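Lab notebook, page 48
Experiment: co-folding of the full assembly
Goal: obtain a model of how the components sit together before planning crosslinking
Operator: M.T.
Materials (sequences as entered):
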Amino acid sequence: MVLDIVSAVLILLGGVLSLAAGVGLLRFSDLLSRMHASAKPQVLGLILVAIAIAIQFPTWATMTTLAIIISFQLVTIPVATHMVGRAGYRTKHLRRSMLYRDELAEAVERAEAREIARERRREHGTDENDN
Amino acid sequence: MSVVLLDITVVATSLLLAASVGLALYRVVRGPSILDRMIATDVVLASMMCGLGGFMALTGRTDLLPVLIVLAMLGFVGSVSVSRYVSKSDSMTPGAEAGSLSDFTASDWHMNSEDDDTAESNAQWPDDVARGIADVSDGPPGTTVPPEADEAHQESTQPAGADDHDEKLTFDLGEKPAAPGRGRDETGGGRDGS
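Observation: model returned without errors.
Model output:
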C-alpha cells in the first residue's frame, strides 16, 4: 500500500512537471527560456515515472529496460537541445536584452581575432610553418 | 493497488497531461519560429511518454516498454533534423545553389558574422580546404562558379588520388587573383592554433 502511494505520487509529479513545461512554453518569451522549460518532463518527469514503474514491477527485465530508456534520454536530450539552441543562436531567435552575458559571442570574437592575426602573420611571411 | 487510489491517480494525471499537451499545442500554433514549434512538439512527445509510463505503472502493461524507447528516439531524431535544417537554410552561402554537397560543412561549422566579411571568412578557413571537406567553389560570392563548371571541376579532381590536394589548392589560387599567395600557404597555416 505504501509503495502504491509512493508510485502514485511519482506519477502525479511527472504530470506536474509536464504541466510546468506546458506553462513555461506558454508564458516564456524567448526561445532559450522555452528550451529551459521544455527539458523538465523529458528528463525529470520520465525518471519519476520510470521509478514508479520500477516500484510497481521490480523485475530485472523491467528495470534494465528502464535503465536503457533513461540513459538514452540523458544522452540524447542534451544533444538535441544543444542543436536547437545553436540553430536558434545562429538564426538570432534570442533576446539580447534578456541575456546577462553572451559568452559565445566573446568566444566567436576571440576566434575571429585569432584568424585575423594568423592572416596578418601569413601576409608578413613570419609564419613558422611557412617555407 | 486500491481502486480509489488508482482512480484518483488516473484522473489527476490525465488532467495534468492533457493541460500540458493543450498548452504545448497552443505554442505549436502560435510559435513565432519553427524552433519554438519543435520544442513544443518535444513537450507533447514527453507528455506522451509520461502518460504511457503512468499507464504501464498503473495497469501492469510492461510489455509496452519498447514503445518508450521508440518515442525517445523519435524525439531525438526530430529535434536534430529540424535544427540542422534550420541552421543550414539560414546560413546558406550564395554559392550553395551550385549543387555541391560540401557547402553544408563549410557554411555550417563556422558561424558567419553578419557584417560584410562573410566572403573573406569563408575564404579564410584553410582547415576545410586542406582536409578536402570544403569545396573551394563556394568562396566569395562574386566568383561563384556555375553548376556545370562546378561539376566538371569535381569530376576532374575525383580520380586524381593523392594529387587531389594540390589541384584544389591551385584551383583556389586561380579563382581568387586578389590574394595570390594564399593557396600556397594554406596547408601550413591551417595547422597552428586550432
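Interpretation: Confidence is low (pLDDT under 50) at residues 90-124, 155-194 of chain B.
Next step: discuss with group before ordering constructs.
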